[in-house]
Amino acid sequence: MVVRISKPAFNIRDKLAEIGANISANQMPSGTIINTAYSEYSSQVSITTDGRQKYATIWTPHIVAKQSGSDFLVMANIQGYMLASANGVNLGIQRVIDNAWIHLADEQMNADAAQEDQWMGTSHNAGSTTNSFNINRFAMDTYRNYKAGQKIQWDIAGGFWRSDGGEIRINYSGYQSQCVAFIMEIRQ
Fold first, then answer.
1. Count of CB atoms within 10 A of residue 171's CB?
2. What is the pTM of this model?
3. Residue 64 and residue 153: Cα distance in Å, rounded?
4. Residue 76: CB partners within 8 Å, gap ≥ 6?
5. pLDDT tens-digit profile of 85-108?
6. Which pairing describes strands 89-95 and 45-47: parallel, antiparallel, or unpaired?
7. Taking a C-beta distance cutoff of 8 angstroms, is the pair 89, 155 a contact?
């Protein structure tokens, strides 16, 4: 016995026309990217803060929330030059509203102590006194207390490992370098 199944043709343009071309963020499913922001920073920033795992702010990108209770994926890239045997460089992302670090599960921030070596970015114990670097960091901010229309900021920060001196220069002058950040608001 042969069974025939037929279904009407489906045209996505017709369906979008039925519901209207502009779909509000409230109608989108959870996990949808509903807003984005992009930021560049090209001025040189020198960081000479002695102490293991100490961070200094490079720049502070932001986004204006479209919806209350969203998550935000913050992606940042820094590039620069390590001088005077800074012995390792890292990138951190800090939420401005409550100074909370958005980081890997066991990453220690601003510890200033010879604790476990869980802070690695690049060039730690590389044996080089000068080195260029390029670091990316992705961090999901699940704070969820942000309100629609609120300007939300993150500090993009850099630091180096050595506790008795050193220097890193983000966007090292004389080169065509820049830091970038990309922020995505994700509906929950």
1. 21
2. 0.79
3. 9
4. 61, 91, 93, 136, 137, 156, 179, 180, 181, 182
5. 667 788 888 899 887 777 654 455
6. unpaired
7. no
How many angstroms separate the CA atoms of 140 and 101, rounded?
11
Q: Which residue in this structure is represented by tokens 């820049």?
A: 178
Q: For residues 72 and 55, what is the distance between their CA atoms, to the nearest angstrom?
A: 22
Residues paired with residue 180 on neighbouring β-strands, in sequence order:
40, 77
Q: Which residue has the tokens 């590389």?
A: 126
The token pair at 100 is 């909370």
Q: Residue 76: what pLDDT?
A: 95
For residue range 24-59, list pLDDT tens digits in order: 777 788 889 999 999 999 999 998 876 666 788 999
20-26 CB contacts, 8 Å cutoff, 24+ apart: 25/66, 25/67, 25/187, 26/67
Q: Based on DSSP, count helices (H) and strands (E) in the chain, helices before strands.
A: 1, 11
Q: Rounded distance, CA 42 to CA 150, Å?
A: 26
- Residue-wise burial string across 12-32, b where 16 or more C-beta atoms lie within 10 A, e elsewhere: eeeeeeeeeeeeeeeeeeeee
